[in-house]
Amino acid sequence: MPREKSSVSREDYLKAIWEIVQEGQAPISARLAKDLAVTPPAVTTALRRLARDEFLRVERDGRVRLTPKGRQVAQHLVLRHRLAEKLLTEVIGLDWTAAHEEAERLEHAISEPVAALLLARFGRRSACPHGVPLFGGLPALRRRGAVKLSEADPGDALEIVHVLEKDKRFLEFVDGLRLRPGTRVKVRAREYDQTMTLVVESVPNSAHTHESGRVIHLGLPATSRIWVRRVAHRS
User: Which of 111, 118, 196, 211 pairs with 151 at a CA distance of 20 to 30 A?
Assistant: First the structure.
């Protein structure tokens, strides 16, 4: 049973639904309860209220669909969240592993004028610290050829473009391995149990020496949370 939060805003529900859709999954009550750490009855009550206010529809199969009105609210909050992450990491200097959790609180306090100023500073074509474009999200990465690391083949030369940001412990794990967006790796092997052997080719802005040639072994729980794009093999 999830620990129920004292308050979850209308915006939080709409953003959670939008993000689940962006991941290519079906937004249903059980998934929302898990992602938002609230009880199923709380989700049912919230969805009923949001449907009444025409932010979403709940289909007969239980799937939740945002209306144009709901999508607009969700997209605005997602943008403010990514801008908050960039503000925290690029201006204040907060570590990227902590940016998502802090931005969850800060996103609600960013006004439209401040969001416009942040957007002008960072640029519309930039991405959050975890590699998600400010506009377009995961679908934009897919259109650019990004796939999950778990889908790559032995021999592929890859660049990491996105690391799933919602689990701070996972971010700390990959940060310890220096697997950030921009890191280039080559797949050496994939075992029967889907464990992958990677060879690090380069790490951007790394103060560590001897990065090239470092071998890393990752299981499916990790490789399914890292997005990559194929790059040309180095000569």
Answer: 211
- Three-state SS at 209: coil
Domain ranges for the chain, please list them. Answer: 10-66, 70-142, 145-230
Q: Closest Cα partner for 137 from 117, 158, 159, 165?
A: 165
Quote the pTM value.
0.88
Q: What percent of the residues of the chain are helix, what percent strand, and what percent coil, each to the nearest 5?
A: 45, 15, 35
End-to-end CA distance of the chain: 53
Query: What is the DSSP pairing of strand 147-148 with strand 157-163?
Result: unpaired
Distance CA 69, CA 60 (A): 21
- Under the banding of pLDDT at 50, 70 and 90, the label for residue 97 is very high
The CATH code of the domain at 10-66 is: 1.10.10.10
Placement of tokens 């890393």 in the chain? 216
Query: Distance between CA 10 and CA 196 in Å, rounded?
Result: 40
Could you name the CATH architecture of 70-142? Orthogonal Bundle (1.10)
Percent over 70 (pLDDT), the chain: 93
